[in-house]
Amino acid sequence: MNGAGTGEEAAVIDRAGLAGFLRHRRESLQPEDVGLPHGQRRRTAGLRREEVAALCHISADYYSRLERERGPHPSEQMIASIAQGLHLSLDERDHLFRLAGHNPPARDATSEHIGPGLLRIFDRLTDTPAEIVTELGETLRQTPLGVALTGDTTRYTGPARSIGYRWFTDPATRARYHPDDHALHSRVFAAGLRKLVTLRGPGSRPAQLMELLLAQSEEFRTVWEEHEIGIGHSGVKRYAHPEVGALELNCQTLLDPDQSHVLLVYTAAPGSESYEKLQLLSAIAPNA
Question: Which residues form the HTH cro/C1-type domain (predicted)?
């Protein structure tokens, strides 16, 4: 990711205000606030610049220049990444965009800015499969054990970012789940999408996804014609993992109503076979 502007060079950037706001937010955060170990002999108030840069997925040099009122005009993508890395609230995110000379993104169901409260909880789930998803089932964040459980589902682009879309178009997605539950999953995804299409209306992203699936999946067309609504899982999900075998996990959810984001946390009963398999899975989890 580079820091070049995106055709908005005429926009007015408040370099002093931007630099001051970034410094204040960085110095007000502690490592444990963003899921980092505190360590010893920290001479810097709050986070170090290189720590913030890593959280924002940008270079430390570029971030340092912003705090020193230097560098190119940051793009909207860059500002969005910084806002997320600094765990900003929606009001703080919008303020950051305006300081950088950009209009803030819309506050609706299409927003992918994760609220700081949800992120704080997520950052503490270091030894548990968990993920944050949008209302369309697009994965925004996964814990390492979450990646080990279902694969890296943040890597998809376009419509395939939605698990509902992949469910009806990509057989590999189904391979991770117990075959006896496939029919129920199909009904759940179709019913959930129907609810969103009604809620968000014609022309919305859910409506566009519906049109794609109607054109591409005969199974989706069949399930869609049933007009089911309110179909849900029991709270238990069964997986067919390629390395540890069958897993039966409880799925707990936490909704952020401001963003329509959901935190999904997967656990197994202590002493159960699935609990032991999760321990095995942790050994192969990336960065575990």
Answer: 40-93
